[in-house]
Design brief:
Blueprint (H helix, E strand, L loop, with lengths): L2 H16 L2 H20 L2 H13 L12 H6 L2 H20 L2 H5 L4 H6 L5 H35 L5 H27 L2 H17 L3 H5 L6 H10 L5 H12 L6 H28 L3
Helix pairs in contact: 1-8, 2-5, 2-8, 5-8, 5-9, 5-10, 5-13, 8-9, 8-14, 9-10, 9-13, 9-14, 13-14
């Protein structure tokens, strides 16, 4: 494998993504969200609300008044969940048509006429999309962190941890979307399988709870077999939220979840490589 060929394909994906209307909308929504966050953090107004609560005998959360910075720090776990869930949904929509466009008839034959192997083409698409996901996530999270620091002089790595968890989950999801695109070359099917895995990954994160719904026997064993390889997307979000809540990351529990998601995504990338290799273009 030639890393330079993989990077050339990824760079081509990035150039095309610059002109994608979905990515323009994605970055536009992130920018509007940052502007809204900046305007919403009017500390004088929030301080006035808290002072009014003190004056009239009111209480704020837990029976005692709290400072603005403490109030906002308490919602950091919520921010992490929003980053993981909404960010993943937006990314599935934004990148669903990238691989089908690269693999469309005529274009894929022209690309393969260059000194590029088929598996390098697939890996280049995957790398390019992951760079787009990382860039959009860091733009949103980095911007939010800067706003919080300027407005509150409060620096926290919690949003970055949440962003990293979201990227690990998306790595698994886009592996399935890429394999689907290599088989059908359909943006709708690619997005559909992405959302299907997203829903299944959230619903089956707590394996014990799901298995308790089945009676012991063959059905339960089959359910455990099907759920086993699925990425635990809710658990990934929980890792970031717990860190935002001041808890240390329990790496003995986190590493199997992270490793399982990465292995799941890379398995379907390998499937995509095999499909493209045997296809007659």
């Amino acid at each position: 494998m030639n890393p330079r060929s993989v990077w050339n394909v990824a760079a081509d994906v990035l150039r095309e993504a610059v002109f994608s209307k979905y990515l323009i909308v994605l970055f536009g929504l992130i920018f509007l969200g940052l502007v809204t966050l900046s305007l919403a953090l009017d500390l004088e107004v929030v301080d006035g609300m808290i002072s009014a609560g003190k004056l009239f005998g009111g209480t704020i959360i837990g029976g005692s008044p709290m400072a603005v910075s403490e109030l906002l720090r308490s919602i950091l776990p919520v921010i992490v969940y929003l980053v993981c869930f909404l960010g993943t949904v937006f990314m599935i929509i934004a990148v669903a048509d990238i691989a089908p466009r690269v693999l469309q008839p005529g274009r894929v034959e022209l690309t393969l006429s260059l000194p590029i192997r088929r598996h390098e083409l697939v890996l280049g698409i995957y790398l390019g999309v992951l760079i787009i996901a990382a860039a959009s996530t860091l733009f949103g999270i980095g911007g939010a962190s800067i706003v919080l620091f300027v407005k509150l002089e409060m620096a926290s790595a919690a949003p970055l941890v949440g962003a990293a968890c979201a990227l690990v989950g998306f790595l698994a999801i886009y592996g399935v979307m890429l394999a689907t695109s290599c088989v059908a070359r359909s943006p709708a099917l690619s997005a559909g399988f992405g959302f299907l895995l997203f829903g299944c990954g959230l619903a089956t994160s707590d394996r014990r709870l799901v298995l308790s719904l089945f009676k012991s026997g063959l059905t339960r064993e089959l359910a455990a077999l099907v759920m086993g390889p699925l990425p635990r997307l809710k658990t990934l979000a929980d890792i970031g939220a717990e860190y935002a809540n001041g808890q240390m990351i329990r790496w003995s529990e986190a590493l199997p979840v992270i490793g399982g998601s990465v292995a799941f995504g890379l398995f379907f990338v390998a499937v995509a490589c095999m499909v493209v290799t045997v296809k007659d273009y």
